[in-house]
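Q: A reviewer asked whether we had any structural model of the full assembly, not just the individual parts. We don't, so I'm hoping you can provide one. Inputs are below.
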Amino acid sequence: MLIRWSIVETLAQQGHTVVEADTARNAVRAMGESRLPIDVILLDYRLPDSSDLGLLSDMRRMHPESSIVMMTAFATPEMRTEALARGAYQVMAKPFDMHTLESLVLEANRARPQPVSP
Amino acid sequence: MTSFEPQDRAAQVLRALVDSAVDGIIVIDARGHIETFNPAAERLFGYRLDEVIGRNVNILMPSPYHEEHDRYLWRYQQAGQARIIGIGREVTGLRRDGTTFPLHLSVGEMTVGSERKFTGIVHDLSERIRLEERLRASEEQWRSIVESAVDAIVVIDAGGHIEAFNPAAERLFGYTPEEVAGQNVRMLMPQPYREEHDGYLARYMETGKARIIGSGREVTGLRRDGTTFPLHLSVGEMSTKGGQKFTGILHDLSARVRMEEQIREQAALARLGEMAAVLAHEIKNPLAGIRGAVQVIGGRLPANSRDAAVIGEIVTRIDSLNGLIQDLLLFARPPQPRPHVVEVPSLIATTMELLSGDPAFKDVQVDIEGTSPPVFADAELLKIVFQNLIVNSAQAMQGRGRIHVSVTAVNDGCQVRFTDAGPGIPADVREKIFTPFFTTKSRGTGLGLATARRIVEAHHGTITVESPASGGTRVTIRIPLSAP
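A: Here is a predicted structure for the entire assembly that you could use as a starting point for your response.
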């Protein structure tokens, strides 16, 4: 998928470690298997096996320490509000400018929920 | 053969004539005392003969004639001034029971021996006047029915000439009855009926074959100002002393047709909205991928190379495709207004600031004047409206000139008027200006004004466009204070 490739290329080139997945199922597995903590998740609203906000809620629950940026081609105001209510850091409209991607990711990283200290 | 009747026989005939006359016959002497009072007079006035003989005839008259009669009679006899003698007139009689009635009285004068006498013949007019009154009441009733009818009523003669045109017809067509009286009714019809109507009527008169007479159908009317409108016409035929006539009853269908159109338009917009949402996904998703990949690949090219410039151009084209989809979405699925308190003049100023970065507005000045109480509206949506209008005006002025914006408080709302110094909009274009995808620009989607109108209407406001003779274009928006 072109968008995934573009994002991976852009962020990797800027020195970030990127784990990619093509479906919701693979994403959940990849995150479980990752040896590094995941700071920011870029999540497409429409995936081959998911097209609602259920995956967003699942990821928030499984990885409360990660910041999640949703991407969508068509966001109704209701959907946007709902995504933010479910804990998305931002809802980004597609298409978007690759040149602004890194700054958004860094911003999302800074806003990452701090793990509760023991 | 000649026969000589004896004197008493002639007297008998006269007696019988007087007694059997249908009209009342009253003879008075020079002082006004009744001498003869025939049976018809008895019936008319309700007196018996023996009650009136020798009494002053003025007992049969109401005031003021009752008091004045003696003087009339005296004056006539002294000065020969006749008011009624030798002629007739309509007067009022007084019955024994005190009621009055209209009658025609003719008075003749005679001399019997040396005595002057006057003969009055009294014809009861009660029935005639009652009939006249009933006719007048009936006429008045019909007239008021016709005058007050909500539907237009137009009566024509067999030649198609207008004979009657009620107030509803005046309102419907914009003509006064004086303007249409005697004119051919085809003046109320657009082509081709205008040409054909005389033929229809002539054929009907000749063959009796009716197309519309006796039934009704939907037709088109032509107003005085040249505009047309849908109407239901039913035509009835009547024969009068003045010849054959046709009565048309016309019911204005504009409101119904407009409502049907609105329903159709709403349904079409709803379908377009669904389509636009699908299109948005199906186009924006691949556009996002293409744009991203092109940017990544472009980033690997030498910065000032021709190839890098081409990549930049591709990205621009992708963005304008995306803009088109965005415009379509906004028009077809405008978001529900989320109203807040909005200060209109400052919102216009903010809109201008957004535009001022665009080189296309470098030579455009916008003056904002006036103020109004804040409205309750969706600022983001109103900003789109203002932006679309300012962009249109700037483009109409070839990117150079002054746009005047006036904000005024009107009845429970705010009026914003944009006036530009462009060439104005021809009347034929003005009709279609709010039609989606209609554009006069070489590069435009034709959705700017259509979207502006949808947004304004979602706020229960109105938007109108005029091109005054003095030039330029004036767009007026009215937003109620508490809009959606």
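A: Points you may want to mention in the reply: Chain A has one domain: 2-110. The two ends of chain A are 41 Å apart (CA to CA).
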